[in-house]
Amino acid sequence: EKGGWPSFMDKEIHEDPEAVANTLLGRFDEQGDIVLDEVHIGLDVFRQIDKIIVVACGTASYAGMVAKYAIEHWVRIPVEVELAHEFRYRDPILTPRTLVVAISQSGETMDTLMALRHAREQGSRVLAICNTQGASIPRESDAVLYTHAGPEIAVASTKAFVAQIVAAYLLGLYLAQVKGTMYRDEIRHILEQLKGMPEKIQWVLDNQAGNVEQAAKQMVNAHSFLFLGRHVGYPVALEGALKLKEIAYTFTEGFAAGELKHGPIALVDAGEPVVVIVPSARGRNILHNKVISGIEEVKARGAYTIAVAELGDPDVEQYADVVFWRPVCPTLLSPLVDVVPLQLFAMDMAQLKGYDVDKPRNLAKSVTVE
Ligand code: BG6
């Protein structure tokens, strides 16, 4: 049951740290090598994989988009991410060396199931990343990597999203290990950093919920929102936007920050709320400056700006009306913390509007029709 929380969504957001910790549990040995015992695909097959295609819908597809940045960087093979319902109907290029990764919380999404059937018919291997033991998608896949987020009841996915990112990252590190594209020490180092993430997520829950609530109160009557991010912040922007659509019924557009000047800036008018995921300023990150100048642009047009930014960011406060702070963490792991205030924000908005946050209108937890 809800265990004292006002909604399942509230409870499940507060289980984000645990979902990350539990998904990591038992996935590495004492030496810090990744062990994916439950994945019954041979080492020789893994070594031959030369392309990954992630198929998923909704939130799960955004977890796949996050993973693309990490896996391509670590394993040096192309990773495509495709909405499952588009995949099957465009004659995708599939070979026995293609690994199709089907990501699904429920494991019952028909679009995703049909996509994986198609991939297997074409001779590709399918690995499922799933949160539900024994569901159709894992049953029909060649291998499964379960997320251990625990049952997710609220229709809008929260803790499953962070767990899906962790599982996909474990898969990426495992591939890097078997293909030898990374040094063992590097893999161990990233594992250590992953193990530190639950604490950082907890920090956000403990220290940023107040800011988030304030921003929600301020913006509760806004008719539309724009969310923008770059690099791994891009799928986080898409996910933040989706949450707001799903439960607060607010017209929201998420896009890549670099696209601003190619169109969406035309939407920005006085008072328009714009949420920006700001990359870390550390290491003279060039993307930091570019995203900051994006905030500057919208601010100059009178936007109300909400930034998700790293503690100690030297520039953000100058342009942002509100900042949701993230503790310092490696860029590739930042989506695990950055999505948390956005989950809270959507929930607060929905609550303030008097909506049922657990059961939004027109939506089902798992969509078992195509
Ligand atoms: C949608 C849900 O219908 O399915 C989303 O409303 C969810 O919240 C999507 O992200 C995919 O679901 P699953 O179970 O395949 O991860």
Automatic annotation (TrEMBL):
It is found in: Cytoplasm. GO terms for biological process: carbohydrate metabolic process; fructose 6-phosphate metabolic process; protein N-linked glycosylation; UDP-N-acetylglucosamine metabolic process. It comes from the Bacteria. Residues 42-181, 215-360 form the SIS domain. Keywords: Aminotransferase, Cytoplasm, Glutamine amidotransferase, Repeat, Transferase. The keyword Phosphoprotein does not apply. It comes from Bifidobacterium boum. One of its GO terms (cellular component) is cytosol. The chain holds residues 250 to 619 of 619 of the full protein. The active site is at K365. One of its GO terms (molecular function) is carbohydrate derivative binding. Homodimer. It catalyses: D-fructose 6-phosphate + L-glutamine = D-glucosamine 6-phosphate + L-glutamate. Catalyzes the first step in hexosamine metabolism, converting fructose-6P into glucosamine-6P using glutamine as a nitrogen source. Its EC number is 2.6.1.16. This is Glutamine--fructose-6-phosphate aminotransferase [isomerizing]. The keyword Cytoplasm applies.
